[in-house]
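In this section we walk through a basic example: taking a raw amino acid sequence and producing a predicted 3D structure, encoded as discrete structure tokens. The instruction is simple. Fold the sequence below.
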Amino acid sequence: MTKGKTKGKVFLEVVSTVQWVASFLFLGVACTLLMFYLMFTSLWPIPTLYFVWQVVDWHTPERGGRKTTFVRNWRIWDHLRDFFPIKLVKTAELNPNKNYILGIHPHGIMCVGAFTCFSTESCGFKELFPGLTSNLVTLAGVFRLPLFREYIMFIGLLPVSKKSLTHLLTNRGKGNAAVIVIGGAAESLASAPGVNILVMRQRKGFVRVALEFGADLVPVYAFGENDLFKQVVLSEGSLGRRLQELFKKIVGFAPCLFVGEHMGILPYRNPITTVVGSPISVPKHIKATEEEVDHFHNLYMEALSKLFHEHKVSCGLSENHELRIL
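The resulting token sequence is shown next.
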């Protein structure tokens, strides 16, 4: 049993984490299959009415969604946080009279640190950054999945699309933080314990958005995110890796070959420390030049590297750990 915890507490943490893993991997597919199955039963009016509603409601995710504090405050998220545990660390003030784009790294297998810190209230984001509202943005395709889209909108997830970010950074006033997992699915393929590889040298869209709306950039690093699962990392150019890349190109996410503890279901109980860095002031240039984009992209990578090296030892890494940016 985990030291200092009762059996009941450990049980709740395990159940909460299994729930998260199952939701991440299977809930979207399960909801879709359920609705299509009901179409061929006597309950067919229910999915029919829902699909009509979904068409009418199609653009809601890009217009701010339907975030509810009720779902974000579920106790289940506290138990998920405590399983690892997960901690959110503030290194600088963020002005609530500005908007921000927080780039979080690395992706890991399931983005547990990003989700827990920025899509739930369990890590104290509002207390650390009063006046700011965080919204984690993810693949737009998952908002097409019936029922599942409602669940993730209640949590506050939004699609990582231009329309969605435009609404978030303009129509909702100030004090908004769009949280983007910059490396995306490509970065998940490099996730493994002890590895700190980021995919972002050619990823400049978030910088263009920041310049267009004058949103300051903030680097965030989730130390320990890559240590939650062991993954079979296929070599570049191998048949398996090419199939992974093809699947990612078609579907939008990469099928990783990973395993955790307890028959591979649970992630390892390794702590995650999500460190929020200092903001990089970005001017508003609606039509920024490539030189301007490259300038702020380089500033961001330098700030991210500095953040990593300043906090790696206090977050459990050795002085020898290096950060590779691809």
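Looking at the output, two observations stand out. The chain is about 40% helix and 15% strand. The mean pLDDT is 93. In the next section we compare this with other chains.
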